[in-house]
Amino acid sequence: MPYKPSLVIYYLFSALDTIGIQIFSGILYVYLLHYHFSMMQIGAYMSMFWLISTFTEISGGIFVDKYGAMTSLILSYCLRILGLLSLLFPLGFYGLILGSLFSGTAESFSSGTLSSWIITKAKTQNTLIASTQKITSKNAIISTLFSLIATFIGTEILYNIDKKLPLFIAVVVYSILLLLTIPIFTKEKNHLVNDNSNTYKGSSNTLKELKAMIKNFINYPFIWILLLASVIVDIGPSNQWQVLFYQNNRVQGYTIVLFNLIGIFTNTLLLKVSKKYQLFLENYIYQLLILDIIIILLISNQILNKDFFYLHVFIYGIIMSKIFVYLNDEFINESKKRTTILSIFYMAQSMFTSIFLLINGYLSEKIGFLNTWSIFSFCALVLLLIYMVNRNKNIKRS
């Protein structure tokens, strides 16, 4: 298939996938609460999703290399539909966990499959317009646009007509993707990146390098303390904001639109500000995180109005962006190890998220979600202050 039609297919599939997820993501937490799942059970569901998608990520990549994009996408869309059906027709807690297994595996088998397919096609056909940056940037714009539209329609319109309707539409969208995949990708050839013998010859060396990188990563407390504290403070807000903004038996669709617009504004601002201010943000990233923690503490104790949550979204977006920049520009010295080190970072982030989701769900059930936010924020604040005091002592000694 020529490159240009393939690019259209890529953007079409990405847009439909975004719609399929975002049409229900803004109401999922309150939807599960409506069907009498406890916060502890919802936390377990989300935790299992993170665990499964993390540990099947590598096997998903190997599967794509061996069996091709079509087989991987068909499997992913089938599993995604099963996961959605488990939510659409809830069969109790164990049915919910089974659904998280389907959805988590589906995520790992589709993540990166389409982008890898189109970039490989662009490179092999030596097209002049084949720029990875252009492809990904344009796709990000398209995805953001469809995300805004889908989340607004799902929360503000569909959920208020029928609580199951957003999930039903998601099933329809993934069914369409499944039906489109077979005729479009049937003629695509499957290319193996490496044969099995070459793959497994280097496995022992790769494991040794991986262990060395993990040890090296642990030796940089600046990174993992920042990562741990940021996950702790945001684990409740990022998953339970729907409960905070739930009014008159409905989720406000405008809230999600504002979140997306804040994200766009934050990324645009970081691109536009001068290097002087970029360095300022990097040097004071701990202080910025402490400010964010204080905001969540004040919101959770109902001292600040919940509208200040938008400020948290803005500040937290800056923090996560600067962590990513630091990882790429300062921490990672060798480009050939970049993907592996970033994988270690994201795996650590996923593991922390999975663990704290369980704890968050349990405490939210026992003492309420706002009190849980308060406890988590306080723990993150203490962790950061202890580290900063010790770091200043070490600097003075040296």
UniProtKB/TrEMBL annotation:
Keywords in alphabetical order, please: Membrane, Transmembrane, Transmembrane helix
Name the residues that span the membrane.
7-32, 44-64, 71-91, 97-119, 140-159, 165-185, 217-233, 253-271, 283-303, 309-327, 339-363, 369-389
Record has Transmembrane as a keyword:
yes
Q: Which InterPro entries match?
A: MFS_DHA3_Transporter, MFS_trans_sf
Q: Does the keyword Membrane apply?
A: yes
The record, for SUPFAM superfamilies, names: MFS general substrate transporter
Record protein name field: MFS transporter
Q: Which organism encodes this protein?
A: Leuconostoc gasicomitatum
